[in-house]
Amino acid sequence: MLHLRVVCPPERTTAVVDLLKAQPGATHLIVLPGVAVAPEGDVVEADVAREAADEVIEQLCAIDLDHLGAITVEQIDTAVSDAADEAMAAAPGEGADAVVWQELLTRTGEESRLNGTFLGFITIACLLAGVAVVTDSTVTLVGAMVVGPEFGPLAAMAVGMVRRRWDLVSRAAVALAVGFPVAMLITAGGTLLAQAGGLLDVNAVRSADNLDFVYDVGVFSLIVALLAGAAGMLSMTSSKSAALVGVFISVTTIPAAGYAAVAAVLGEWQRCLYSFGQLVVNLIGVVLAAGFVLLVRKRTWTSQDNGRPLSTG
To answer: Which keywords has UniProt assigned to this entry (predicted)?
Structure first.
């Protein structure tokens, strides 16, 4: 279930209430007249089955409440109610299969922003990958995969291209185009410092073979990237968010970036080039597979979101 809160002008309250009463997937309807201050108006609240949420949001936007008031949606973890059970049973489809498209746009728009937090995470992840290369540690490499924030912009690019939201595509592209080079340059600098301080055994790094798969780019690299991208987008468009951790661990974007940075410092240009190729293959594969999943689920589109500005908060 999702909790829906609508702030609306008093003259639109009756229409909102009638709309929610007519929706079999909505329940726990509450009307609070005149309590909203900014913007002024009434507040209408209801709990809505996930599979009915996209239709409800579309209907609310059709009466301009996204402009005249506000529509907010949040996840309900637990709802102990016969009325809630009846609403979920009455709503068509399964909640895990339902896509709330406005929620997806908002989420990917937020996760694709280039900011200090994104740069911090991608830099730390790349540094961890560099340490993994230097120490030949697969455990540290897995840690780098989990910390990496790159799936957010990749998912945003897929959503933006499929839904023709070029503002979302450009935002995500900027985050990736700036984030990876910055992280790789800092990792290269850290490698140089480690080498100067005697912490880096060049011969040991060159002879290590536990992480050879990072720069061993090939057909299976693309297959894994495609499967990970599909799983990641399925997770983001459903209520199965726990699957994202597996996606992070299976994609070798961050490891490839870290390996390329270390290999460049060591003068291992072939490994550097192969690692960069691995990075490109993974980036493209994830976006293609995520976009394909969205195209398959295109039949569930309802809300018209084209042209709606992304959140900058």
So the answer is: Membrane, Transmembrane, Transmembrane helix
Question: Is the preceding omega at residue 39 within 30 degrees of 0, hence cis?
Answer: yes
- Domain limits, the chain: 2-98, 104-300
**Cross-sheet strand order for the sheet of 70-75:** 26-37, 40-48, 2-8, 70-75
| C-beta atoms surrounding 91 within 10 Å | 22
Nearest to 16 by CA among 49, 83, 64: 64
Q: Which of 10-24, 218-232, 240-254 is predicted most confidently? A: 10-24
DSSP letter for 36, please.
E
Tell me the mean pLDDT in the region 234-261.
77
pTM of the prediction?
A: 0.81
Closest alpha carbon to 170 in 112, 121, 230:
112
Q: How confident is the model at residue 308 (pLDDT cuts 50, 70, 90)?
A: low
Q: Which residue, among 97, 80, 139, has the nearest Cα to 240 in the 3D structure?
A: 97
117 by Cβ neighbours in 10 Å (0-12 / 13-18 / 19+) ranks as exposed
> Do residues 29 and 46 touch, judged by C-beta distance below 8 A?
yes
Query: What is the C-alpha separation between 117 and 228, in angstroms, rounded?
Result: 24
- In CATH terms, 2-98 corresponds, of 3.40.50.360, 3.10.350.10, 3.30.70.120, 3.30.420.40, to 3.30.70.120
Which sign does the torsion angle of CA 257, 259, 264, 268 carry?
negative
71 beta partners:
6
In the structure encoding, which two tokens stand for residue 202, read together?
């060049």
AA letter at 283? L
Helices (H), ranges, 37-136: 50-62, 65-68, 82-90, 101-111, 116-135
